[in-house]
């Protein structure tokens, strides 16, 4: 019997999540790809693992039995990989990370470029996700680690199964059409009459900015809802409104945009989240150190403390 770890992982996730669509989203496959791999797994083991139940599917008794053993098999495979990594000094391994646009360009790229020169056997693969989705992907095991956010005025609810390593602290700035705010600083309230370009309320950034505006006594008039800071900056450059952007977005400020400091700063921490149940991995420690070095070179280094330690929430 030839058991594929990839197919066993899909079976395990189907047991956990209940639908092929949910498995596909968690493991970054198409639903048809998941179905094909599960069908192949049935051929590999020679028994029916999945059956139709109305419009849904569910595991058969034999499917449940194999899913339970899959947990042990996958955990053993992870332990074996970590043991081999540690035996080689932790520098010949593969890690998969969850990132988003600004952290990928501003921190991950310089960090991985530096690591490649000294540790060519360390391979880090990245998957671009919304910041709101990266932690869940670590919890379910589809990522080894991910970057996550926490805002000074909007603390996140964190699952205790995650360990966080703070790698950077960013400040939010007003991005306005060039020349529209001549002063070096601006109050959020002074932007209340402008049209706004902002991420949706579902995003952490969108919620944090809306809360900051409400604390100043107004609701932003959001004309354009966009998720990427680079898109917001392009629209500000076109004179379509104002927005708030973070330090990491300042590398790509287009002509036609002025960046103005807020008189009452809104801060956010960037952390790396990893699973608390996973064995320590020296390769991941190397990545964290490299990312912190990249953050220091950009002037957004952190003290290395987690947000719950208290000093970052009140900045």
List the main descriptive attributes of the protein structure presented here.
eight-stranded mixed beta sheet, alpha/beta, 12 strands, disordered C terminus, two-stranded antiparallel ribbon, 315 residues
Would you mind describing this structure in some detail?
It is a single chain. The protein has 315 residues and is α/β, with parallel strands linked by helices. The chain is 39% helix and 24% strand. It is built from nine helices and twelve strands. The protein has helices at residues 5-17, 20-27, 31-45, 61-87, 101-118, 134-139, 204-215, 229-237, 282-297; strands at residues 50-53, 56-59, 93-99, 122-128, 145-151, 162-177, 185-186, 195-198, 221-225, 243-246, 257-262, 267-275. Strands 3, 4, 5, 6, 7, 10, 11 and 12 form an eight-stranded mixed beta sheet that branches. A two-stranded antiparallel sheet has the order 1-2. Helix 1 (5-17) packs across helix 3. The longest helix is centred in the first third of the chain and has 27 residues, at 61-87. The protein is elongated, with a radius of gyration of 23 Å. The termini are far apart. The model is unreliable at 304-315 (pLDDT under 50).
